[in-house]
Each structure stands twice: as structure tokens, then as C-alpha cells.
């Protein structure tokens, strides 16, 4: 309505309103709302700016639940439905994952038992690691990615890349994990699928020497290694997406920025109480240290009359 009068200033307001059967009070209320927006509208504008900032900092990854959680962490009090509405009005949305597997079974290999049975939970760090391989396409050729994920915190404890999807690749990611984590021999399960890289003599021997129990789901079944498959869905959706990497080095840098710069340290997860994997582990160790101090505190002698 205001635009109509701006485009045709020669038109009389009252006669136009009468022709359109609009009360003059309604028109002037519209004008006041444009010049002096109500508190809710001003708040919507302010919130939309904050939402856009959180969404941009996630690389366009977060949907409304995580955006809402991040705003809450920053002390912004807003309802989840309001965040959904404002994101929809601003044309913002999260990303949805896809999956694709790449491991192949060696029919002559000796298989480890399934010690997980689709229960991808752990009560503390370094009790269950899941691992898998995937391929990142580049113009230079395929870049193979091996990663190990801790079931407790969902942290990527190790990842390595190579131009070849062989046993050396999965072995190097295991060595990196062992160097960066403190494990207790006999307490850790290493779960993979039936891919030939995971049934290789090199890997199974190294697991045995480290006191790690090997476990395997079935090849081609995402549910039997669901936590590892979920990592690939996130990586392909949030890091690779529709990007075309010119070289393997370029793809490797993007993976480094994602895993080490974002996923482990900053990407919040609903199953972790909207904490990042590193934050979740730090919270666990802080609570463990507090509990140990309480248990070690000497008891005060009871007073008797």
C-alpha cells in the first residue's frame, strides 16, 4: 500500500483508500508500523542477525536445532519454534547427509567376531573405536580416507589419507590413534566391517600386539558399522558437498580444517547434550577428577556424646 503512494504521489490518500475499501486508520497503522516497528518485530530482526551469524560460522551446516542450541549457549533466550520460523523466512537450512560404502571383502580372510552387535555406546573414552574407509574424488584422482571414531564422545581420534585404499592406510590411522590416546590393553574394542584392509595380517597383528580386541560387522551393511558410516555421511555433506578438489593436497587441507578445526572442537551434537566431542570428553574427565577427589577426601570422625 505504501509503495503504491510512493510510486503515484499525485493520488489522494483518502480517495484511494475509499476506492479500495480500506479504513484510513488501518493505513496509518501500517505507516506507523513501518516507521516504528513493534518490539517483537525489532527482536525478530535482531535474532535473525544472530541466527545468520551462527549458521555462517557452522559453514551453513547447522539446522534449527543446533542453531537454537548455540544461541542458548551464548545466553540468547528464544524458543525453538521461533528459530525455525526465522530461519525459514531468511531462507536458511541445515544440510542432509547421504551415504555410500567402498570396502570390499576378501573371501579367504579370517573374520573377527561381532563384539558390538549394533550397540555403539561406551561408558568412557577408549573403550570402543569404530573405523572405516571412504573415497574423496579429486581431479588428480581418488583420495582415500581412513578414520577412527570413539563411540563415547564421537570424536575422530585419528584420520589418514592416501592415494591407495590398502592395509597400510588403515594401519597408519591406527598408529596415529595409539600415539594420541592412552589405552588400557584388553579394554578397547576396534570395530570395522569385513573389508580386506581390516582383515589383513598387518592390521590384525598390530591390534593383537596392542592388546586391542578386533570386532567386525558385515560388509555392505551400514547398520553393522553405523557409527562409522554416520561419520562419512557428515563428512560428505558438511565438508565435501559439491566441491571439486583440483588436487589431493587441496582435499587433504579441507579434511584437516573440517576434522581438526571444526568437527572435534566446535561441532555440537544432540547426543552429546549439544557439546562438541572435545567438550564432552573434557566434561567427563572433569567429573571423574571431582569424583576421585571426593572419594579420596578423609572422613571426619563422628562426634559422640
Automatic annotation (TrEMBL):
- SUPFAM superfamilies (UniProt xref): Ribonuclease H-like
Integrase catalytic domain sequence ranges: 121-285
Q: Which GO terms describe its biological process?
A: DNA integration
Give the PROSITE patterns listed for this entry: INTEGRASE (PS50994)
According to the UniProt entry, its GO molecular function terms are: nucleic acid binding
The entry's function note states: Involved in the transposition of the insertion sequence.
What is the name of this protein? Transposase
Organism of derivation: Streptomyces fulvorobeus
